[in-house]
Amino acid sequence: MPKKRTPDKNFADVVASLETPGGSDPADGLLSPASAGELVDAEGRLWTRERGPLDARLARRLVRGADEMIIGEGAGEVLRPVPADGREEAWALIKDALEAPESGTYRAYDFRSEDGRVLLYVEEFC
Length: 126
Hints:
Elements: H1 11-17, H2 33-36, E1 38-40, E2 46-54, H3 56-65, E3 68-72, H4 73-76, E4 78-81, H5 87-94, E5 105-113, E6 118-125
Parallel strand pairs: 3-6
Antiparallel strand pairs: 1-2, 2-5, 3-4, 5-6
């Protein structure tokens, strides 16, 4: 019977030699803003998840009352700010897909900044 070969490296050495994943693909191990609970907008403002996913009634209230609205396309990979005058149009496109069981649905989240501003973040799930 042949002798069992001893490995040159142990498991801890192999794991330590692996590179950290890069990019923003969820398959690479990075979380979406909704999952991570934090979002940094184009202006560099840090938003922290307050609550969510929200039901359609609460999301609708934030469409009208939030300081900012961002749609995270592709599970948050592309952040698309929605101007105040475009919110009703955006809401019309996503309201029926909010919490829908089929793919391509949306989930809404309430995010807050340190200075008390409110962000409605709507994330698309493919």
